[in-house]
Every structure is written in C-alpha cells, then in structure tokens.
Amino acid sequence: MRVQGVSEHFILFHNLPLIYGRVPKVANSSVKAALTRLLAQPPEEGYRSTADGLWRRGTHGETTMISAEQALLRRSSHFIFSFVRNPFDRLISAYNNKLVENDSLSTAMQRMGLERQMAFRRFLEVVAATADADLDVHLLPQSSILCVEGVPVPGFIGQMEAMAEHWQVLRRRMRQGGLPALGKLPSKNVRRGSGSDLSQYFSDDRLIALARDRYRQDVNLFYGEHQLEQLARGQLSVTPSPLERWNPPLPV
Questions:
Q1: What Rg value do the Cα atoms of the chain yield, rounded?
Q2: What three-state secondary structure class fits 243?
Q3: Domain for residue 241, yes or no?
C-alpha cells in the first residue's frame, strides 16, 4: 500500500492556471523558491519553500499537490512545466547528498537497504534491483514522476544542463500565456558543479549498463539525442530548446 501523497508530484495553483511538476535533484529547491513570488500571501510560518509540505498545507489554500493523472486532466486549461536532468548526473547527486553528506538516511532509503557511506557500486546495484514503488523519491525515474502511461504530462520540459537558457524561455512562455512574471531563478541548495566527476563513478561498462537499464525511459524520453557515453561522462552539449512537443498552442 502506498502512503498518501507519495505519488503527488505536481504543485497546482488554485488562483492561476499553472502547475509545476517537481522533480527532486533537478533545481527543485530553486524553482520552488521562485514560485513563492506568485503567492498572494506570504507562506505560513514553520514551512520551508523547498518542502512539499508548504505547497500542500502552508500557502493559505492557494496551492495543493496532485498526481500526474490529476494534472493530465488539466492539460487544456493549465500551463504545466517541469525540468529534467541527465539521469546519470541526478543519480550521483542523490548518492552524494543523501548517502555521503547527510547524517541520516530517509525512511524510504533505509527500507531499500541503503546505508550511509556505502560504496557507489553497491548503491547502484540496490537501486537497480528496487521497484519504482519502493524507491525513495530522489531516486525515482523522472519519467515515473512526470508521465502517465509513458507520455509526459508537462507541456514544457526544460533541461537542467541548459537551465539559464531554458528558464528564460519558460518566463517568455508564461508571459505569452498571460501568467505573472516569474523573475530570475534563485540559487538554492547548489552542492555539485557541472557533473564533470561522473566518469569517476561510472568507471566500467557494467555500472553504465545498470544505470542505463534502470533509467532507460528517462534517457529515451528526455536525452535521446545524446550518446550513452556522453551521459555517463557528463559531456552534454547544451540543448538549444526545451522539450515542448507535447505543449498545446499558446497565444502569441
């Protein structure tokens, strides 16, 4: 049985036709901080802008969190956006932050059998052998978060590797749709650099294959234009345009 709220990955604004599909370890804290500017009232005390709890219970009823299926029903009436990240890089970010830097593990990671400071190879083997329903959200495939029956729900999907460029496109699309100005993207919880350390972790073909097989749909849907070796080494060329092929037409 799944815990209530576990599958609710989309932030719905009740007073704006706007939905954000939040993906942990993909500048999620920064995007949420930017979205607080769209609230009519300051967030309630005791909540951090980075926490899902704020968006469920701490915005005086201005927002809530919904599932991908619920967001899909609003495709024709809401602008839905998200950002994705090279799945190899996102995996390393989660490993470093949650198993190396943090003093304790989440309950979900403990249930998976993960341990602090465990070797990356063993970590990846555990992740590869764990079903989506049992994964900590930071390790859940981005496609599982953003898709319904394999089809992405957001009409606008930017890539973290081109965050500066794609954020500007997002701001322009929102203006075209009559939505409030989003402003510049704050810098929140930035821990790693450009991802140039990936080759230190994916040091042999078996590790690359494990990650590829576990996150195959992420690779195919969001990074299909890149070679597997590029993804595993973090050597991505900047994508000039966000993924908007699922986006309904917006006013010009």
A1: 18
A2: strand
A3: no
